[in-house]
Inverse folding.
């Protein structure tokens, strides 16, 4: 009975965090930029209403797989209001999630497309689209409490997949490992690297599926699918 109560409480807690994220105004530079992009728009999306607000996490509140990205794209999640939705990085991510049984669809195009995630939750180090895709250090610091709150609410996480070196560091800081370990002890970032932490969490690293990585061949579909295959295996009983 107690376990069922915990499960029922998880979703409202995550929903509460999401609403708080959406209303966040901690970083004036980022908020100004998101509003500007939402007003000026890209020509191909000129008839759409941009989200233009901080983007909350998305997924299953009972997830065992947590995916951590960098930040919303200006004309991706800043437009659609859902993590990794509306850009090429999202196309790569949701195709892989669907292939390995974590997503109900292979494409995520809007908040209202019926997409459901199973056993997976997607979040980011920063919740507002930054100019030139580069948040500043104080913006990472200001946004970290949201990731910390999600980690506390998501009590079943077993595998954390970080997309890129910055997401890797951001998760280590939010989860407390950065301060509890020396530089020599911290899990290094490398594509496909797996670190088994002392609390049982498996930290899995991948290059980010940005155009810069996918168009140059630094990240191939085979490499990308290999990471998700590993995540699926780690979650097997």
């Amino acid at each position: 009975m107690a376990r069922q109560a915990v499960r029922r409480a998880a979703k409202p807690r995550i929903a509460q965090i999401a609403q708080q994220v959406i209303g966040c105004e901690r970083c004036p530079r980022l908020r100004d930029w998101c509003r500007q992009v939402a007003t000026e728009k890209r020509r191909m999306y000129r008839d759409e209403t941009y989200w233009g607000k901080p983007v909350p996490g998305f997924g299953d509140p009972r997830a065992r797989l947590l995916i951590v990205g960098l930040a919303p794209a200006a004309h991706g999640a800043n437009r659609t209001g859902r993590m990794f939705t509306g850009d090429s990085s999202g196309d790569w991510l949701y195709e892989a999630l669907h292939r390995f049984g974590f997503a109900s669809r292979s494409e995520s195009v809007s908040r209202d497309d019926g997409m459901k995630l199973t056993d997976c939750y997607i979040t980011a180090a920063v919740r507002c689209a930054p100019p030139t895709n580069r948040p500043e250090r104080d913006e990472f610091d200001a946004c970290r409490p949201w990731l910390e709150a999600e980690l506390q609410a998501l009590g079943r996480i077993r595998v954390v997949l970080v997309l890129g070196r910055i997401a890797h560091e951001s998760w280590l800081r939010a989860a407390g490992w950065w301060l509890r370990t020396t530089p020599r002890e911290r899990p290094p970032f490398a594509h496909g690297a797996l670190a088994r932490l002392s609390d049982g969490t498996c930290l899995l690293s991948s290059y980010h599926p940005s155009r810069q990585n996918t168009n140059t061949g630094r990240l191939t579909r085979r490499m990308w699918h290999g990471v998700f295959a590993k995540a699926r295996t780690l979650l097997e009983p």
